[in-house]
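$ ./design --mode recover --in tokens.txt
reading tokens...
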């Protein structure tokens, strides 16, 4: 296991926070979220075969509606405009009943 200094850990954390913040701002605008709506963007490990090591999960919480979980099979810093377009289209579709 390699040694990671606290300084480099903090720098990487700040960089990840900036990437998440920029993605959230883009998604908030593209999804047309209002002041009472919330949005969460997180990067998690992807256990599925054929999936990259990390994937991005977007939780869309519109006031008075169920939370929708959307995913992009890419790390936050690799999400493309086409993937954002796909997320917006997916959010506009009514959720399927299980």
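writing sequence...
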């Amino acid at each position: 296991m390699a040694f990671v200094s606290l300084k480099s850990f903090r720098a990487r954390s700040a960089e990840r926070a900036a990437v998440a913040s920029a993605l959230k701002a883009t998604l908030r605008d593209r999804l047309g979220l209002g002041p009472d709506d919330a949005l969460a963007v997180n990067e998690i490990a992807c256990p599925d075969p054929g999936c990259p090591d990390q994937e991005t999960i977007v939780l869309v919480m519109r006031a008075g509606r169920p939370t929708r979980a959307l995913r992009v099979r890419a790390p936050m810093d690799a999400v493309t405009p086409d993937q954002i377009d796909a997320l917006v289209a997916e959010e506009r579709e009514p959720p399927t009943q299980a």
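exit 0
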